[in-house]
Amino acid sequence: MLNPYYRQIPYAKGYKVSINRRLYNYCGGEIRTRVRSGARYASLQCDDHVRRYVNIDKLADDLFAEEETPLLTEDMILNRLDARPLLDWPRYAITSYGAVYCIKPPKRGFKARGCYLVTDRPIRGDMYVTLYKDKMTRKTLKVDDLIRSTWNY
Q1: What's the CA gap between 24 and 14, in Å, rounded?
Q2: How confident is the model over 45-86, as pLDDT tens digits?
Q3: Looking at residue 42, which CATH number applies to its domain?
Q4: Euclidean distance between CA atoms 16 and 56, whole angstroms
Q5: From start to end of 46-137, where are the E strands?
Q6: Is residue 135 a part of any domain in this protein?
Q7: Where does the pLDDT of residue 2 fall: very low under 50, low under 70, confident under 90, or very high at 90 and above?
Q8: Boundaries of domain holding 13
Q9: What average pLDDT is seen over the chain?
Q10: Are residues 100 and 80 in the same domain?
Q11: Residue 61 backbone dihedrals phi, psi, to 5 degrees
C-alpha cells in the first residue's frame, strides 16, 4: 500500500520525500537541505550515478499534486446540495444543515477561482460566519439565525 505521507523520487530510488517537504534516504535517515532563494535544495545521488542538486519544494509539489478536483458551481450548490439563496445577502446560499456557500465569488483574490464553502467559527458556543456585500460591507451573523430566516424553521 502506498503511504500517503511519503513518495519515492522517480529518478533517485534511494530517497523519499515527505508531505512536509523533508527528504529521507533508503534507511529512513533525514537528509540535510539548504535554503536558497526561499526554496529547499538537496544534493542527491541519482539512479544514473550522477549527483544532482534538486529543488525539494518543487519536487514535493509535483509528487503530492493530486488530480484536479472539480470546482463547485452555482448550479451544483443550488440543485445538488439543495441550498437556498440568502435573502439579504445575494452572494451566498445556505443548506438546511447550516453550510454557507458563496455562489458569486469575487472577481479578484485567492477566492476568485469559483464558488466555495464559507468558513464558520465558534463564538461563545454558537457558530458564526462573516458575509460580505461588497468590499467595504461585512457582517458576522449567527448560522442558526440564517437557517431560521431562509428555511423557516
Answers
A1: 9
A2: 999 999 999 999 999 888 888 655 567 889 999 999 999 999
A3: 3.90.75.20
A4: 10
A5: 51-55, 84-85, 92-94, 100-102, 116-117, 120-123, 126-132
A6: yes
A7: low
A8: 6-64
A9: 88
A10: yes
A11: -60, -40
How long is the chain? 153
Whether 40 and 21 have beta carbons less than 8 Å apart is answered as yes
CB 6 within 8 A of CB 24: yes
96 and 132 share one domain: yes
Which triple of cell numbers denotes residue 23? 527528504
Give domain status of residue 46, yes or no: yes
User: Is residue 69 a part of any domain in this protein?
Assistant: no
Grade residue 1 by pLDDT with cuts at 50, 70 and 90: very low
Phi-psi region of 113 (alpha: psi -120 to 50; beta: other; left: phi over 0): alpha
What are phi and psi for residue 148, nearest 5 degrees? Answer: -60, -40
